[in-house]
Amino acid sequence: MKYLDEFRDPKLAKKIVAAIRNTVTRPWVIMEICGGQTHSIIKNGIDQVLPKEIELVHGPGCPVCVTPLEIIDKAIEIASRPEVIFTSFGDMLRVPGSRKDLFMVKSEGGDVRTVYSPLEAVKIARENPDREVVFFAVGFETTAPGNALAIHQAAQEGLTNFSELVSHVLVPPAMEALLSAPDNRVQGYLAAGHVCTVMGWEEYEPIAKKYKVPIVPTGFEPVDILEGILLVVKQLEEGRYEVENQYLRSVKREGNRPAQKLIKEIFEVTNRKWRGIGEIPSSGLKIRDKYADYDAEHKFDVGDIQTNEAEICISGIILQGLKKPKECPAFGKECSPSHPLGATMVSSEGACAAYFKYQRLQ
């Protein structure tokens, strides 16, 4: 299949690994931002075939993982109300809140439904005018256009029983937050290809220049990732700090302008708390006042929620690239996919889930 098999070609992968070996002369730490890239790296053993000088660390690019506990608890509070049909992508249902998760709400009688598109939630609202329908709008810039479109569609139809609980986060501010931290180890970035498909890479250029760090928008197949690593290593070895696009078949410098326009129409930039990291200025999106009637936090008045994190869970440190999942004392013991303590174990993009699924227990 074009654009799939060729990017899983073992012979081509071996050539790129050899090129990395021939290029690297000293240790470098490279972070892949996206949880999808993390899973591909662990699944395909990419980190195990690289020369010892290259260390890959896993970043906060799993939207489920960085959704703050307060938002999960707000979702549980809203979903528990009898008048509400609460809709979400499936990976959010098992994310633990302070006391329970959305699956438990469903087992207790709450009307919690898995959907595959926010527009499906709009359809449910259209078909159930006597119920409040809430969509859990979580994600990076990748999912923001679809979630914006759902609000736009509901507004066009005059639906008053649809709203979104929004926890959108933005990648560039998080990258800067990590790079400016006193304990930062990151020397180069593999940027998330799907985010850059929407937003382009113009936002990354001042970051690369300011922090002297190569940034390479990269795809998700093994050859994509290996080529992205090679491009980063070449820049580091040559003392260059630029944005260099690996994901040519999908990403353009300017990104998708119509999608960006729709995002700006519905959302505005706000400060946002990241689970395990804390609040990062101007790192999130919230619904504009013009569309406040579609803001579930505003509609259901769930502003004051107190949370309790599992003390043994180190997912926040893992999300900052400071430790690996196997360094967590609870990994594979108190914390497993069947009984997750943190979102990095429950999410399909979480680093802990990847290590557990592909048996990186040692």
Salient structural properties:
362 residues; alpha/beta; Rossmann fold; four-stranded parallel sheet
Please, could you describe this protein's structure?
With 362 residues, the protein is of the alpha/beta class. The protein has two domains: 1-313, HypD, alpha/beta domain 2 (Rossmann fold, 3-Layer(aba) Sandwich), CATH 3.40.50; 315-356, no CATH class. Helices cover 40% and strands 19% of the residues. It has helices at residues 10-23, 35-43, 46-49, 63-66, 69-79, 102-107, 118-127, 144-157, 171-179, 193-199, 205-211, 222-238, 257-266, 296-300, 315-319, 343-346, 351-357; strands at residues 28-34, 54-61, 84-88, 111-114, 132-139, 162-169, 188-192, 215-218, 267-274, 278-287. The strands form two sheets. It has a six-stranded mixed sheet with strand order 4-3-5-6-10-9, with helices on both faces. Strand 3, helix 6 and strand 4 (111-114) form a beta-alpha-beta unit. Helix 1 (10-23) packs parallel to helix 12 (222-238), helix 2 (35-43) packs parallel to helix 17 and helix 7 runs parallel beside helix 8. The longest helix has 17 residues, at 222-238. The protein starts with 9 loop residues before the first helix and ends in a 5-residue tail after the last helix. 50% of the residues are buried. The model has no long low-confidence stretch (mean pLDDT 92).
